[in-house]
Amino acid sequence: MDWRAEIEAAAGRIAGHVRRTPVMAITLGGFPMEIKLEQLQHTGTFKARGAFNSLIKGPVPAGGVVAASGGNHGAAVGYAAASLGIPAQIFVPEMAGPSKIALIERTGAGLTVVPGQYADALEAALAHEAKTGAMQVHAYDAPGTLAGQGTLAREWDEQGLQADTVLIAVGGGGLIGGALAWWQGARKVIAVEPETSCALHAALAAGGPVDVEVSGVAANALGARRIGALCYGLAAGQGIPSVLVSDDAILDAQRLLWREARLLVEPAGATALAALLSRAYVPAPGERVAVLLCGANPAPEPVFGDRAA
């Protein structure tokens, strides 16, 4: 597949439907870096890009669209569907949490909360697809989704990205897969995963996608049980490294972003930065680093460590 051509086409489709999110230079934890504020995207994550691309590309049947989600993808599909006048049904696991469930409800999409994890929601969504003929909008392992997410990397280049290395958090692999599909080795990409939700790390070690146990503070956004085949092929083909970070490191990064820059992100949105702050990834002397902040849908009472401020 000519991924760059697919991403160029996706950028044309979604223009006017998604925000061109800002970038900035900043020093955090002693590290100078470039960051992209994708948490300012519609519904608070990059996922609006893949959702709009998939729905506009279509064709969408009379049964509308269906999606399984840990929360963020469902909100993005619901938002895109409402914007385009398309009926949508979203399935999420209970672990999505009340904040993300409420976000989906506000889009007006049909919503079903199922027991268990993302994989259980996906099973229910596939059953709905078989019953109704609705178009499945996969959260990460579909060409339309991945190409849509790849528009973020394309946009960052247009904004003058100077970094040699970009750190990106990984769940199912749609976001980092899109970045790899666009950059194709032109920039060093570092996959960052929680120690307790590390589907790509496990797949690279095993030589192919495998099931992993999922838990931790970022599980409702990065908790894919198995990495997407598209992402795995791109990551393995380019030989990218995967580093792991602890829940404590993720929460420390989340707090620092709020304390030092007043940037509100969920744990998944702070995961890439956690790799730098915890020294899970140590840049070489002179290496220019960029970090992607990918999500801004924290729990209702996030802890930022400055209550007296």
Radius of gyration of CA atoms, rounded to a whole number: 18 Å
Widest sheet: strand order?
A: 1-2-10-7-8-9
Count of separate structural domains: 2
The SS-based structural class is alpha/beta
Task: Round the mean pLDDT to the nearest integer and report it.
Answer: 94
Count of extended strands: 10
Under CATH at level 1, the class of the largest domain stands as: Alpha Beta
CATH topology of the largest domain: Rossmann fold
Question: Would you identify the CATH architecture of the largest domain?
Answer: 3-Layer(aba) Sandwich
The DSSP helix count reads 12
Strand content: 15-25%
Question: What labels describe this entry?
Answer:
2 domains, 12 helices, 17% strand, Rossmann fold, four-stranded parallel sheet, six-stranded mixed sheet, globular, alpha/beta
Briefly characterize the structure.
The protein has helices spanning 3-14, 47-57, 72-84, 98-107, 118-132, 143-158, 174-183, 199-206, 219-222, 229-238, 247-261, 267-277; strands at 23-28, 31-37, 65-68, 88-93, 110-114, 135-136, 165-169, 188-194, 242-245, 289-293. It is of the alpha/beta class and 309 residues long.
